[in-house]
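WARN retry 2 of 3 for item q-0093 after timeout on previous attempt; input resubmitted unchanged.
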Amino acid sequence: MIPMADCHDDLLMAVRHLRERGHRDPFGDFWLPQLREGGVILQVLPVYTEEQFVGEGALRRALLLLEEARLLAEMHSNDVVIVETSGALFRALEQGRIALLLAIEGAEPVGNDLAMLDVFWRSGVRMASLTWNRRTMLADGVGEHDTGGRLTALGMEAVAEMERLGVVLDVSHLSLAGFWHVAEIARRPFVASHSSCRAVHDHPRNLTDEQIRAIAASGGFVGINAFGPFLHDKPELRHYVNHVAHAVELVGSEHVALGPDFLDDVARAVDPILQGALVDLTALPLVEGLRRPADLATLGPLLVDRLGERDAYAVASRTLIDFLGQALPR
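OK item q-0093 returned
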């Protein structure tokens, strides 16, 4: 089985919701077997701020999700470990444990106080983005594209502070103007943890070829997203591979990774109200054969067939591992 590294899965949010409803060990009962079946050896765990927690509740929720990560790592210490340094990452891989990397998706928990970046760093966070689709105190997300907003003055300071600390800057979800502002001021490599290719399918959440080249030129990578609407009007597994292949052809496999952003099981777990009350989960435009972590086992051979063994192994895990090996503190 080809080793897999996933740069974006919101499973922490789902695990927290299920435990709040009395499920003792949702990670061990579902997600850990899924990760093992998919051959995942490295998993980035983003902390996302749901709409109901935007504002004063964002920091509290973020801290609870970070604690959720620590709890599941303690409960399953033989199988997973949170890594904060490159040494810890490579030890985990050698031991056969799944390396977990903590991230912040959107800067709502930071608010207007950049000292929170230090707090999150000390809490083990090693990757962060300035926005989700909405506006934050630091920048505009892609959902605010009509403003034409770049980074705020605070956002520019945040980039410098993240670079000082060693937090990897993630530009997925950032507005177009904000992206190019980052490219203008960044002094360290930045990444897009879960974005696909606009040249293959025109969607606001996808990156143009110029953006992908800029990320690669910084020394970063693009983690290709598997959410159906980003891939094709009628998405299939082959369309995901098309996005991967396009990015590899554009900048080389050393700048392309996987960021599938599996939403099916997360959406079903997050809130009982989603169970058909407001959202028809059966109508979510997901990709059959790439709905959850276990499906990564079938993706590997498809990547080999399309890209060849060397590039397939790079995209599947080596790119992300090599990047973090350089980016994380020793």
